[in-house]
Amino acid sequence: MKNVATRYGVSTLGLVFVALGVGISIKSNLGIAPPSCPPTILNLQWQAISIGTFTWMMHLVFIALQALVLRKRFKLRYLMQIPAAFVFGYMCDGAIWLFDALASPATNYGVQILFSLVAVVLTAIGIKLEVIGNAWILAGDQTVAVLADELHMSFSTFKVIFDVFLVVITAAFSWVCFHLLTGNGTTMVIREGTLILAILTGICMKATDPLVDRLFKRVDFSD
Fold first, then answer.
1. pLDDT single digits (tens) 75-111
2. Which among 192, 175, 213 has a CA at the least distance from the CA of 116?
3. Best exposed site among 59, 98, 130, 162 by fewest CB in 10 Å?
4. How many CA within 13 A on the CB side of residue 102?
5. In 3D, which of 24, 50, 61 has the Cα closest to residue 169?
6. Tens of pLDDT along 154-170?
7. Which 8-state DSSP code applies to residue 138?
8. 149 to each of 18, 59, 154, 157, how far by Cα in Å?
9. Separation between Cα atoms, residue 32 and residue 193, nearest integer Å
């Protein structure tokens, strides 16, 4: 029981880091990571519904897609994606509220780049914590894993395809609603920051993963 609590604690900490990455990337106003693009553009159109709420709604769609694809092969443990979706969604709302309280959206390009890079580091650390905790399952990554397996593709290859798809549908929705591909003209959803987060997060993990491993090397994660 102690190890289970440890695993969920570390995984939850990972979600916190990823959520903080989402919050500061939005504050950069230079574009956000592909998985957060659809919820953010939907929030710009329907502001009464929070980004976090749209996030967990999107995750529920992902879970339904997995069930549709896997059918009888859909495992009971995959249902843990449902509470993870709610937890992560409202963590995103909390992170966005925190950064809104601290500062206005960045306007200086150097600061915008800095915020995007900080988001990369936070996201990289958060993903690693999720992996070593091996408790919460986020629906986005699980959906990529399921579809990659069904299509006989590597996870990394299909992840790129999936991220591009999310950005494309975000840009299409943005064009229909705001006649812009990048957002509503005030909040930038798709820009350089989107590319920075999509490309550099994996590269950053090569540097941050060993540090996280060293920090948690004495923690017992066994069941």
1. 888 999 999 999 999 999 999 999 888 877 778 899 9
2. 192
3. 98
4. 12
5. 61
6. 888 898 899 999 999 99
7. -
8. 25, 19, 7, 11
9. 6
